[in-house]
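Assemble and predict.
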Amino acid sequence: MSDENEKHVDRLGMWVFLCTEALLFGVIFSAILVYRFLHPGPCDEAARHLSLPIGTINTALLLTSSWLVAIAVQRQARRWLYVSAFLGVLFLALKFFEYWLHYQEGLVPGLRWTITARPEFELFLILYFISTLLHALHLLIGVGLLLFTAMTKTTKSFLSNIGLYWHFVDLIWIFLFPLLYLWGRSA
Amino acid sequence: MTIETRVYVSLMFLLALTVGVSLLPLGIWGVVTGLLIAAIKAFLVIWFFMELRNSPPLVRLVAAAGMLWVGLLMVLIFGDYLTRGTIHVLGK
């Protein structure tokens, strides 16, 4: 197969994989949406226990890292991948710091639950932990892939596809942020 | 400013906008606006950062198909719940 063809096939395969990931997270988004509509009161109340500053900073970190990955791919300048990987690590650090805050407040279902609230409140938090942990796992894998691509001599096509994966992880968070953090903030 | 930088500035502006809007008492419309802004951000990332605007038509078709399948997923799930009479949307 010619190089040109192989590049197109690689990219197509990557997009197909990303579509399967979209369906995976799509189901989780749907669960959050349905639950928000079924029990707006407890869900809004639970959402207000999440840290808006941390969520906002994290969104900014991922948007910046996506921009830098796009530049790295565009200019074939792999050193930007190191910066993006670092921003991803910062995200994870802030995320786990937020988890620690939840633990301190006794808001971790099954691990440390000290608040008296309706069961729906607790279930919203379960949805929050499942969705953000799954996203964090994808992000961690992404950081590893960025570093691998930055440090080894891969093809341009490989670099491009790793970029696609990273942008996708950013996309997930772009939707998770309003669904979990922003909805119900003003009540 | 390169196109990537322009897209980035737009994304950060949209982030500030969406956080600001979430603090206003708009009820369900706050949610709608938030998700709409998220959709615009998503389009910017997909079209520019993921280079869909420079991709061959087949790749664009696959991306569109992915969105359609997720859309179908959500339509069917919500079709179920909304027709059970247990969800009260928009005050109905």
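The two ends of chain B are 49 Å apart (CA to CA).
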